[in-house]
């Protein structure tokens, strides 16, 4: 019996539809080596090549690959039918909406809004799932969540997305850091010092790197990595390096003087607050109500 996951079938179909491994990676918001790993895992499982790989040219399906692609599409269609049935049953058995939310956004930006929604709409059961950006995308795409919320400036493929707000990011450091009390620190001066932050290969890490590059900080030397703010905060406070963080997440530490905001002279740093839903499944009334509520609480000035 073959042990091939739904995710690997989706990646295979994406490579064919997009015409390259790189474009398939963009569709899912993952790195290209991850796409290659998924395809190699399928090939190992079936014992044959799926694609004829030619450098710089569109990958061609082998005869085995064509057969696997046909079954993959049938498999994904059945999975979509199953999701639709689950959504229908869930809608018939009670009013519920599942929100998948990026951790920093849930903890520091949307916490009051989500509490207010739960109080205002006792007829709807709100289920909150908190995780990384990758979790938000996959849970919305796979039908685990009805709505997703995350921080980022990149356009997404394969989901219905809208920007509902904007959050400021700041550069923070230990009070003893050489840049802590300097005025109008230029990007080239920031580049001389180590950073701590999310893994550069993660979606959030890549977003932060691009944000810094656009602000003139192109060369970032990462001294330590952390996926949780508490550890990142400890690294910064101990003087391991500078961090680029959501301003709301560091407000209390800045007020207590345990961390210092660098007076950065470059462009303002910020991420859009985005909410997403599947383009393949109809939006339920509770999900639509939640999206409308969050939109109303985070209106962007025209």
TrEMBL record:
GO terms for cellular component: cytosol. Gene3D superfamilies: 3.40.190.290, Winged helix-like DNA-binding domain superfamily/Winged helix DNA-binding domain (1.10.10.10). It comes from the Bacteria. Residues 4-60 form the HTH lysR-type domain. Keywords: DNA-binding, Transcription, Transcription regulation. InterPro entries: HTH-type_LysR_regulators, LysR_HTH_N, LysR_subst-bd, WH-like_DNA-bd_sf, WH_DNA-bd_sf. GO terms for molecular function: DNA binding; DNA-binding transcription factor activity. Belongs to the LysR transcriptional regulatory family. Transcriptional regulator of the ttuABCDE tartrate utilization operon. This is HTH-type transcriptional regulator TtuA.
